[in-house]
Design goal:
Layout: H1 2-15, H2 23-34, H3 44-50, H4 53-61, H5 76-83, H6 86-94, H7 109-116, H8 119-127, H9 143-149, H10 153-161, H11 176-183, H12 186-194, H13 207-214, H14 217-225, H15 240-246, H16 250-258, H17 264-268
Helix pairs in contact: 1-2, 3-4, 3-5, 5-6, 5-7, 6-8, 7-8, 7-9, 9-10, 9-11, 11-12, 12-14, 13-14, 13-15, 15-16
Length: 272
């Protein structure tokens, strides 16, 4: 009786189209119609950020694009990377989400995972081909800058282990080490140096100049202990000691002097 009803309904549905179908095709059509899922009331981006995997599943089943972007150009994967929801990230990635999608600022999901310190999500992204050197944001910086600035040592190590450049440059010609100095993060300075960061910089203001001008004694000691040139000069012949003196950092000046530091003028006159 049930089979007869299905056949009758299927025939009625398709009769108007002049289409001849088998019972198997009719059943499949009915199954597809019955399986239609209503679109959830919660946006997929919000569900991804909160880690509501069932809502995300419903969205995907209802036809919401896995890479659908909101007004900020962000995909659901951007939001789940920011929220650190590894299960949702895995679901989106298994449904072919673009791991290198860019938001309106040019940032990728890996930038957000690095900023927030979500190692598990970062590992998922990298395993599926996320570009560890992708540059985005106002600074046109790669994810390692995000991790350094927020003192995410585990993410710094993960990124470097997967091909990130420890001496990468942003749009302002600053390196991750410069960022660590600027933020006053000696533990990041130490980690980056251990991973091969250039303590003397590569043109422009050096890490030692920056730390001297802001009075960061611990960082200065780290830089000097790891080969920083105490008398490196930049524009106008300024040395780190010049910058310490100019900014009234007497303690720093004393440290630099102890290590043989001189002013630019002293270097020109042979130290006299």
């Amino acid at each position: 009786m049930k089979r007869a009803i299905i056949s009758t309904i299927a025939a009625a549905l398709l009769a108007g189209c002049g289409t001849t179908v088998s019972k198997k095709q009719a059943k499949a059509q009915l199954a597809r119609t019955a399986a239609k899922v209503e679109l959830p009331g919660v946006p997929i981006h919000r569900a991804a950020w909160k880690g509501d995997i069932e809502i995300v599943r419903q969205h995907l089943a209802a036809g919401t694009g896995v890479d659908a972007k909101n007004k900020w150009g962000s995909t659901a994967l951007h939001y789940t990377a920011r929220g650190g929801k590894a299960a949702v990230a895995g679901l989106l990635i298994s449904n072919s989400a673009d791991v290198n999608a860019r938001d309106a600022d040019g940032l990728t999901p890996l930038h957000f995972a690095a900023t927030a310190g979500h190692e598990e999500v970062a590992k998922l992204l990298i395993a599926k081909g996320a570009d560890v050197k992708a540059k985005g944001g106002e600074r046109k910086a790669s994810p390692i800058f995000s991790a350094v600035t927020k003192s995410r040592g585990n993410l710094v190590e993960l990124l470097l282990a997967n091909g990130a450049d420890v001496n990468a440059k942003d749009a302002f010609a600053e390196s991750p080490l410069d960022s660590a100095v600027k933020e006053g993060l000696p533990e990041m300075v130490e980690l980056l140096i251990a991973k091969g960061a250039n303590v003397n910089g590569d043109g422009g203001t050096t890490p030692l100049h920056k730390s001297a001008s802001t009075g960061q004694k611990e960082i200065i000691e780290l830089l000097l202990a790891n080969g920083a040139n105490v008398n490196v000069t930049i524009a106008f012949g300024d040395t780190p000691l010049d910058w310490a003196d100019r900014n009234n950092k007497e303690d720093v000046a004393a440290i630099l002097r102890k290590h043989g530091g001189k002013t630019g003028a002293e270097l020109e006159t042979g130290g006299k």
